[in-house]
Amino acid sequence: MHWISWIQLTREPLSFMQKSFVFAAIVALLLLFGSEQRTMPFKRTVVAPLVDTIIAPLRTLVDEELQFRLENILRERSDWSSLISKKKMAVSLVDLQDSDCPRFAQFNGDHMMYAASLPKIAVLLAAMDAIDKGELKETSEVKRDMHLMISRSDNQASTRMIDRLGFAKIEDVLTDPKYKLYDEQQGGGLWVGKRYGSGGGRHPEPMKGLSHAATSTQVCRFYYLLAEEALVNPERSQQMMNILADPALHHKFVNTLDRIAPNATLFRKSGSWQTYHSDSVMVLGPNRRYILVALIDDPSGESICRELVLEIEKALSVTP
User: Fold this and answer.
1) Spacing of C-alpha 138 from chain mean position
2) Does the chain have fewer CB atoms within 10 Å around its N or its C terminus?
3) 35 pLDDT above the threshold of 70
4) 55 near 225, Cβ under 8 Å?
């Protein structure tokens, strides 16, 4: 795996396909023509695959030290430990700080749970796949609905997108061998089998009969593959990054990150229904680069998510 360091010139995510030699060439040209240096918000490191490099499967990146730290923070709190033991809490984490060696850890990562609105990221992926294949026209209405579905978690927009695609299309994309974001051999994963509104029937996943499902590890894989520009293609991956960036809802993980990492760019989708609280985020900013996913079945799930971010940053040894 190859990474590059890049200076962010705007709040929008930049291309992930820049190679180090291209970067060097651009710098040389800027120096040659005496271009003035701009004021730059922050320096960001992002994943950038080489054309001839196979993306390392996330599950091969398990790090013993990070796993030990994650288990410790989850077990130190008696309430969290109880939820973990009852399989009512699942957490997966990818540390992206070391540019040469991403690290992965999880607890109950392959335990599938009801995830409310979080699986709307699966609808986004299926839509991008359909657009790229000419199965769905990329109209202004479609683009607006995709944005509302993710940024504001709008149920009406989500239902319109599901109706445009159909459950069979969404399933085909999630079970596609090149993604395997729903894989019965790995505990299931992302699934959308019901509209986010009344009517339309159900198309539940085959293992537990859930309509809106996720495992924390498969959601981590979604962000990991997205960062590698491996979802559909680089252009569509970039579009998805733009839609996921700067969420409009500022609760759970984002509530804490707004305070402790105001200059970071957040790519995020969450979900809540009754006692089910789920959140997912990829954080790229000064001194912190990681993916965090939590699925919780408890009335205190909202506050647990806020507190979890602080403990995860301790485990990652993030400095202010």
Assistant:
1) 23
2) C
3) no
4) yes
C-beta of residue 308 within 8 angstroms of C-beta of residue 254: no
Q: How many CB atoms lie within 10 A of CB 299?
A: 12
Specify the amino acid at residue 33.
F
What tokens appear for 257 in the block?
A: 């990150």
Beta bridge partners of 297: 276
- Number of Cβ atoms within 10 Å of the Cβ of 202: 11
Tokens at residue 287, please?
């001194």
- Take residue 206 and report the two structure tokens written for it: 């085959």
pTM attached to this predicted model:
0.83
Nearest-angstrom CA–CA distance, 209 and 196? 16
Q: Do residues 271 and 252 lie in contact, with contact meaning Cβ atoms separated by under 8 Å?
A: no
User: What is the rounded distance in angstroms from the CA atom of residue 152 to the CA atom of residue 317?
Assistant: 32
Domains of the chain listed by start with CATH number: 56-315 (3.40.710.10)
Q: Per 3-state DSSP, what percentage of the chain is helix, strand, and coil (rounded to 5)?
A: 40, 20, 40
What is the full DSSP assignment across 233-280? -HHHHHHHHHHHBS-S---THHHHHHHH-TTSEEEEEEEEETTEEEEE
Residue type, 129: D
Q: Which residues pair with 44 in a beta bridge?
A: 6
